[in-house]
Amino acid sequence: MAFLRESGPDLEQAFDAIETLERGERVDPDTLHLGLRALFNTPAQSYLAEMIRFDPAATLHELGESDDALPVLIVHDGRDIQIADADARPLADVRPDAQLVVIADMNHVLKRVAYDNRDANVATYSNPHLPIMPDVVDAMAEFVTKTHLPC
User: Fold this and answer.
1) Domains in the chain: how many in total?
2) Dist. CA 48–CA 147, nearest whole Å
3) Do residues 10 and 76 both lie within one domain?
4) Among the listed residues 131, 91, 89, 138, the one whose alpha carbon sits nearest the alpha carbon of residue 107
C-alpha cells in the first residue's frame, strides 16, 4: 500500500485502518472517509489482513532452501504506484539465483506508462483496450524457454 504514503483522501484514517487489520480486528467501512470505503470494504478486509501478514521475501527464501527449489522470475515495473522498488528488490536479495527483470515504463497492471503522471497511470487500470507490455511477455517467454524445470 505504498501508494497511500504519497496521496490519498485521508492518510491518517487509512493507516489507522491498516493498524486495526494488523491487530486482527475489523474496520467498519461506514466510519471511513468515502474515498477509503472501497479499499476497506468488508469482503476485502480478510484479503487485506492476510496480505499484511504475508512476507513474500521470507516465503521466497524458505522455498529457495529446499532441495527441489524451483527457478524464480521476479518482474518489477518502473512506474508502479502500488509496489515500491524498495519493496521489490528484497525478493531478489533473498534469492540470488532468481532472475530480476525491471521494465521501466510498465505499471502494476503490466501496461505502458511513459511518464510519471499518477492520473494517467491509474487510467490504464480500467482500460481493457491497452495491451500488456510486450517486454513482460518476452521476459516470461525467455524465462520459460531457457529454464530447465525438474520433471
Assistant:
1) 2
2) 33
3) no
4) 131
